[in-house]
Amino acid sequence: MKKLRVSLATEKKIKKGQLLLEKKDFPHLDLDHQLVDLMDQRGQFLARAYLSPQNKGVGWVFAKQALDLDVAFFRALFEQAKAKRQSYRDDAGTTAYRLFNQEGDGFAGFSVDLYGDYALFSWYNLFVFEQREKISQAFRAVFPEVLGAYEKIRFKGPAYESAHLYGQAAPESFTILENGIRYSVFLNDGLMTGIFLDQHDVRASLSQGLATGKRVLNMFSYTAAFSVAAAMGGALETTSVDLAKRSRDLSQAHFLENGLSLDHHQFVVMDVFAYFKYAKRHGLVYDLIILDPPSFARNKKETFSVAKDYHRLIAQALDILAEGGLIVASTNAANLSRQKFKKELDKGFAGVKYHFLVEWGLPADFTYNKKDESSNYLKVFTIKVNQ
Ligand code: SAH
């Protein structure tokens, strides 16, 4: 095992409970994809970590002792993770949620989601990917009720991004339940699955009162999961806007799954900025507008980044929002702090009065490292506009 001496700044950060190792912690690093022991300036053992670059950082601390990564190690983590989610298991109306969330459950670099009888593993770097035999063996021992599993590759390396991992094959698409609402999902078609599980508390608020009697506009709607929740919660009408052609069929499938007629629900394949213009020109008005863009997007003409352009979404939403209307503003950009996101929103309101009704982070099954704000990446605000 290699020993790496760290700077005082890195030592402090580790002692505070931060787990992500960054390039700036090791300016002269020439090691990769391996376990290391981190030592302080005096040569004393600090923590055990692994090195492997991913979308953020160059590695992760996982223990303050010299632990080995064997099946028993992962088995113990899965047992704790399972115990924490007892309330989800007891809820017959919900069959999809996160079973294991990276550093929040004791080991960063992979997550596991439950979709009905099947599990979905996401690997974020090559080191954890190489541990997957051990990890799935431990998982199967703790979750024997899971019939089969799939995997998603979320780093550059293997020539595939989605594959069957073990056990029974899942149907090409099938239905999961969330708070009694049905959603159609697929586990082996690209990186997406038809639903973003981390938004389940927001969908619950829509289906449990927030959307009742309202005209709802859902921007960047993907499979229209927010619209379905709103419709089930008594929305008068919903309009779902997404650039991707495929989103229309997937969205309609969600509505039909729940026995909803499509009469008052529209699916528009269009750029959101084009739709804002169209709606304004036609005098369309909405009581509730949901904004949930990708962190970064590029179309033929321009790029959109949450950090720089979110204010434009707010400004244009205000043009077509009914008096006293609501905006649900969401982002999953981990590199944008809650405070910076609020500033960006404020820029969009440009003097129009508003206040936050609810401020969401990640839901309880997405356990995160409480000592590192960036690990609670989801930021969603329900905003009342008093214009
Ligand atoms: N809100 C969704 C998830 C959104 S994922 C949910 O809760 O399920 C981001 C979506 O934005 C993708 O479906 C993508 O096709 C869409 N998108 C990206 N850029 C867009 C643009 N300029 N106009 C409309 N849709 C866009």
Automatic annotation (TrEMBL):
The keyword ATP-binding does not apply. The keyword Transferase applies. It comes from the Bacteria. Residues 9-63 form the RlmI-like PUA domain. Residues 171-344 form the S-adenosylmethionine-dependent methyltransferase domain. Keywords: Methyltransferase, S-adenosyl-L-methionine, Transferase. This is Class I SAM-dependent rRNA methyltransferase. The lineage of its organism: Bacteria, Bacillati, Bacillota, Bacilli, Lactobacillales.
